[in-house]
Here is the input.
Amino acid sequence: MAKRIDVSDLNVYYGKFHAVENVNMTIEPRSVTAFIGSSGCGKTTFLRTLNRMHEVTPGASVTGKVMLDDIDIYDPSVDPVAVRREIGMVFQRANPFPTMSIYDNVLAGAKLNNQRISKRRADEIVERSLRDANLWDEVKNRLNKPGAGLSGGQQQRLCIARATAVEPAVLLMDEPCSALDPISTLAIEDLISKLKENYTIVIVTHNMQQAARVSDRTAFFNVEDTGKPGKLIEIGDTNKIFTKPDKKETENYITGRFG
Amino acid sequence: MTTTDSSATARIPKGKRRLGDVVFAGSARGAGILILLILAGVATFLLIQSVPSLMANTGNFLTSTEWDPNTNEEPRFGVAALIFGTVLAALIALVLATPVAIGIALFIVYYAPRRLAAILGYVVDLLAAIPSVVYGLWGVVYLVGELRPFYGMLETYLGWIPLFAGPVSSTGRTMLSAGLVLAVMILPIITAMSRDVFQQVPQANREAALALGATRWEMIRMAVLPFGRPGVIGGAMLGMGRALGETMAVAMILSPSLVISPFLLQSGNQTIAAHIALEYPEASGFGVSALIAAGLVLFAITLAVNMGARFVVSRRKEFV
Here is the structure.
């Protein structure tokens, strides 16, 4: 059920501002692809175009193609809502619904797809998703407590469980660990390695060690100057990007000689 | 230490009371105390002035529906019918206004193009600026006549529900008409409160819902309405507080009688505020004191509803 994403000639705009220029890349199924680059280089913006969340921002627009297997998700006949059900997303700051219990948080998306789920089926989905997210043992005795009462790391794993509960083909993660302590970060990284067996995973990260640890392929984005559009500099196997990148810019960034 | 160590006091000057601060703090404190004094003064006035008639009352003040206090011997009066009418009118207004207000607020915040939203918000606020006597005129001169055929339909099709049982009042000056006009009057405050709280829903929660594949309506149901509920309830109760005390519009529209009648399409019932306004010119004997006693009851009901509203609104802090 994991699917391949094929991006061609993608340009992203906020109103008249050209945010990301001419991206071409292939994201392989059942693998982790990391996006690295300095702040403001457009990696998060680009990530949000992959499940059509970008257009939620007023004035935002996109040109080009994003193929999910054999469907162009920007084809006028495609419903963005359907795209987002197929391509899940985890945000930088954990955002469980504050008014819902842990149980209802996990089911939130699943209930959208299928309003009438039997109690038994619902219990199964909750347990499976929480187990997948390595959270089950910590919360199984307080499923009816508010999701907002968990620690930051637990909340982020709850959000991952909520995203996987709908069994998407692709999981997009926007700096999922940037607000977490090292132990919670490790828990999420373990989880990512486990999830890639079933999902196509794309992760934006500021932490290069993290990209090196969890990803199979790495894409480096850069921006020449503020006000200029961000660009994909190169994408390749993580090993190669971190040891022998093709481009000088990538090497400078990786080795810390940025500029 | 500072008293013995003179060099330290030399470097750090002693705190001194600045005139501007003293004056400002004093006047702010005075204003705060003044509002308490006014409230206490009104309550005391109501209590003291209502005592003579309450002492002389030969009926039961809380359970009787009679109103015969305009005598110096053995007045008989009670507020049962008035309390019922007051609460009924406010409830009708609340039931009619709240869903519309929520709809307007959601439209303004999540559906309307930005310019239209600004205009619409302004127009709703304008509704609050119309004097209640104008609403009353509009209600009695125009609206009740237009509502007559509609009431006929209600009776024909929903007459089996006791609320809508006939015969329909021939003038249309009924509890439902009064409630309807009150609903228009409290619409702005409920809309404004709902709009504010809907705007405060964190973007993170809205995006979480959208990223799960929620449509806009599903996003609203999942993230916006649960988050906004305490604010909407608070707004509704503030609106109800206004509806309870509204005088002029009800006095002009309703054709009153002191009965406890649940039949919304028939004339009858009366609210405390309108009753006071209509009875006061003809009050004699214990009449004025009895009306003040009724006013005391209205004061208590309104205070209770407003305090309830404050309580509900303040509870929202836990969520944010």
